[in-house]
Amino acid sequence: MANKVAKIPVIDISGDENQEQVAKELVEAAIEHGFIYIKNTGKDIPAEAVDGAFDMGKKIFKAPLSEKQACTIQKNNRGWSSMQYETLDPATQRVGDFKEAFNFGEFINGKADQPIPPTIAPYESQINDFSELCYKLCLKINTLLGIGLQVTPPDFFTNAHLREKGSSGTILRFLHYPPHTQTPDANPEADVRAGAHSDYGSMTLLFRLKGQAGLEILTQDGKTWAPVPVVPPGTENDPSPPILLNIGDLLSYWTNGLLRSTVHRVVFPGPGKTTVEGESDTEPRYSIAFFCHPVGTTPLESVPSERVKNHRGDAQAKQGNPYAERKVLTADEHLHMRLRASYLQLYKDKE
Ligand SMILES: O=C(O)CCC(=O)C(=O)O
Ligand SMILES: [Fe+2]
To answer: Basic and acidic residues composition bias: which ranges (predicted)?
Structure first.
């Protein structure tokens, strides 16, 4: 049965004027939807940088298997996660996610602080540059959220994300989802390419390619899934599709659930499933996610904001998200709790 596509606002944050107004719109969208299209005018992240990053992603996954295996993901959440190694929704999935991924942690002086496949070593600085662009955009969004929520001081969130204050769980992740024709073991009705989950960090920037279907969000009724078009109306002629921003669990904890951390998944949108006009899953799907995390030692207490104080952990914001109610001490403790739940083998083998 075809579901309606997700209703998500498109916001342009690239200008320098009307900062207060833009901040207000961003906060309202983060409260109401948790997902926001950030119009990509090319000012914050040039279209060529996005294209270059996708080329990089393809190179990483085409690297010889032995090179990828030598970089197998570790408990620090860095490295290569092979097909079906991660299970984002272990409570309902019979098998792991039909995807492979490569995670880069924070770079140090432009160098990756982890093993990388020799095939992509010549491009290390390009990956670092893309990660920098994403980091800066997240700082800007953190500032706007602080202004829009009237946090005192308004740069409260931004300060918590400054790298000079300590390391964080921030990850630049390249993803590859083969089409169903290449995953004969998958039952497209029952299996998923990425299980239902909310993101673990403060916010995520997601880059997708035109024409590639698959992402769905859980709507506020807690039951219906809505596909998220790559190119929403009005952005067809932009230099690059909008960057899809979503609020993660940490910004939700920090604001007592006022900002919504929305559950989402990636499916095989085969026959009979909802597809967005002009999108299909006949080709391999590639996406890039930048998971922005605060400094690991940051305590996740409610932020100093009257608006947050007056908000009493609204039940609606928690709907469909089993993690929304857990209280944990620091950003790092929260991250490890979540990784433990989705990398079953990694934690089983080594404990
Ligand atoms: O590939 C996508 O569209 C979404 C991926 C995602 O939700 C994630 O990696 O957390
Ligand atoms: Fe996600």
So the answer is: 304-315
